[in-house]
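Work Package 4 report. The design task specified in the project plan requires that, given a folded chain encoded as structure tokens, an amino acid be chosen for each position. We show below one input record used in the internal validation round.
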């Protein structure tokens, strides 16, 4: 089913309660600064032009929804220092001054900023755990979660969270921007405001989005299928191997058929297990693969190979990979192509992988393969061998059943 052709509520000037801070509202947690800013706005059914009753209901329900906004850093929360010309983080508590339109959106937002905003190149396993556990702690108190994040590693964080947040039944949306929020031509405003709509979208008292997504430049995307492909254009993310989940134009569309639904009856939980005992290696013509043998033993090697899974067909290649396997290293193979994936056996130059018992990463992104391996490696909650578990489709990250 496709949600289509419904218009987002027209924004109106309205009275709203003044942003207030409460010491009690936040949770002291590592990098967290407790701060809660809450605002509400009036509801007006006359603001809607929808073609489908169910969609209308869906938006009306969204009005009452509570969204937890977690601000981690990145360009979206920066402003230009006109003396030095460089970008610096601004106090996110002032977001309502920077973006007065936020006061007009029809949901209730609590803002929890990182104590020290981070460039996303400083985000990693520790921060993913903090975010996952914070969502876990607040899961019952909010209807949706919005994470503001630097764009450089947003796909890693989205992928990691998709594995850590088990049986998610509420929306988790990540967004950021290419230009700072204070910039005249900023993309931050649209990204943030529409993300709030998606993070609060409910129908028949059920969240429409029940997975980790990225919303960026008019597109809602499955988080663990994304890659950042442009450092220049506003349209910075793609999911080459999965359809777009939703699009915002004059109407907010949702492609309901493509949304992820957990098949188990199990309740939501957080499993923040992450191991970093792995290596990612991109091959190139003329490379000396045997250099890998000089490195300390790693538990998982993710090898990014050519096309649909080929590698130089030499004795040395076979010997090196076999030696790594004999040392107990799991080898996951993914493609250097951003679209399509691995197909062992298609060319004879991929047979070597079958021979040594390598694992196909199929059409997974590098970000997803890395964070999935990190999550599954030595994870006591998963029974079975690594190859078998890794080959499963856990939360829509790969096109296998
Ligand atoms: N370097 C920034 C970051 O990823 C870039 C951005 O936010 O767009 O944190």
């Amino acid at each position: 089913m496709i949600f289509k052709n419904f218009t987002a509520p027209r924004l109106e000037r309205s009275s709203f309660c003044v942003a207030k801070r409460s010491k009690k509202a936040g949770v002291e947690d590592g990098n967290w600064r407790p701060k809660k800013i809450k605002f509400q706005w009036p509801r007006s059914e006359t603001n809607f032009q929808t073609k489908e009753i169910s969609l209308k209901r869906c938006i009306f329900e969204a009005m009452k929804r509570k969204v937890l906004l977690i601000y981690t850093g990145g360009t979206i929360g920066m402003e230009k220092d006109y003396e030095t010309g460089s970008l610096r983080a601004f106090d996110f508590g002032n977001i309502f001054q920077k973006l007065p339109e936020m006061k007009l959106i029809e949901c209730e937002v609590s803002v929890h900023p990182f104590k020290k905003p981070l460039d996303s190149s400083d985000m990693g396993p520790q921060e993913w755990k903090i975010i996952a556990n914070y969502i876990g702690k607040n899961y019952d108190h909010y209807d949706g979660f919005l994470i503001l994040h630097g764009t450089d590693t947003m796909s890693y964080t989205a992928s990691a969270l998709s594995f850590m947040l088990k049986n998610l039944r509420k929306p988790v949306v990540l967004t950021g921007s290419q230009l700072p929020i204070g910039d005249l031509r900023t993309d931050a405003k649209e990204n943030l405001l529409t993300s709030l709509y998606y993070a609060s979208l409910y129908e028949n008292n059920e969240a429409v989005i029940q997975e980790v997504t990225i919303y960026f430049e008019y597109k809602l995307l499955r988080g663990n299928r994304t890659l950042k492909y442009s450092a220049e254009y506003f349209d910075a993310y793609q999911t080459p191997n999965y359809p777009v989940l939703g699009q915002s134009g004059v109407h907010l569309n949702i492609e309901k058929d493509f949304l992820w639904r957990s098949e188990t009856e199990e309740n939501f939980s957080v499993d923040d297990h992450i191991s970093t005992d792995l290596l990612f290696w991109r091959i190139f013509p003329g490379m000396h693969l045997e250099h890998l043998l000089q490195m300390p033993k790693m538990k998982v090697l993710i090898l990014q190979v050519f096309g649909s899974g080929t590698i130089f067909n030499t004795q040395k290649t076979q010997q090196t990979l076999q030696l790594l396997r004999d040392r107990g290293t799991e080898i996951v193979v993914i493609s250097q192509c951003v679209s399509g994936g691995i197909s062992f056996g298609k060319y004879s130059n991929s047979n070597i992988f079958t021979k040594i018992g390598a694992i196909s990463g199929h059409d997974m992104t590098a970000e997803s393969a890395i964070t999935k391996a990190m999550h599954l490696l030595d994870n006591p909650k998963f029974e079975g061998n690594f190859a078998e578990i890794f080959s499963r489709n856990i939360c829509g990250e790969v096109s296998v059943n």
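The radius of gyration is 22 Å. Validation will be extended to a larger panel in the next phase.
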